[in-house]
Amino acid sequence: xxxxxxxxxxxxxxxxxxxxxxxxxxxxxxxxxxxxxxxxxxxxxxxxxxxxxxxxxxxxxxxxxxxxxxxxxxxxxxxxxxxxxxxxxxxxxxxxxxxxxxxxxxxxxxxxxxxxxxxxxxxxxxxxxxxxxxxxxxxxxxxxxxxxxxxxxxxxxxxxxxxxxxxxxxxxxxxxxxxxxxxxxxxxxxxxxxxxxxxxxxxxxxxxxxxxxxxxxxxxxxxxxxxxxxxxxxxxx
Length: 237
Prior knowledge:
By secondary structure, the chain is of the alpha/beta class. Helices cover about 35% and strands about 25% of the residues.
């Protein structure tokens, strides 16, 4: 990988990095760090690549502008996301520095303030991180589901132990399907402090008792988590 290059397009600059690979086409990836990552084979000239970037400049700037708007919003790792050493990852409210180690035995684990990914190649990093987040979120949410159910029983509330479904949602943190006895939790809660996930579980379980957001509903929530408004504030940001 070469140093960061700069290309002027109109009245703006595009920072880009070139990696030479055995690929047929020029591949372009744009990261939230504001850098465009280009991969191309050795036969493609720098001039040709720069013209390629200029042709894509409107698209590149539109993506960079969206990243700028969402700069403070953490996102879940995805298998098709490009990662490199030193990236910052959010995991249950804490920031970790990504450390990629090339290894035949693939794994992901936390070590101090680092999230270590042992992968056969850097291209496997996204897939391994997505699997890690999915599995660890499932473990925690199953535990929180049991704990929340027991908390409600201990307070004298007659609620079912909810069937748990986890999926990524954009408009809500959780939902309660009273007739099915099911709670759906947003997988993006893996990016926020664990107490926020606890709050969402309590919020959704409270709907088994009060199916709306009346004062009676929030009285139930308050009884189970008196400081729930802290979580509400965090999840709104």
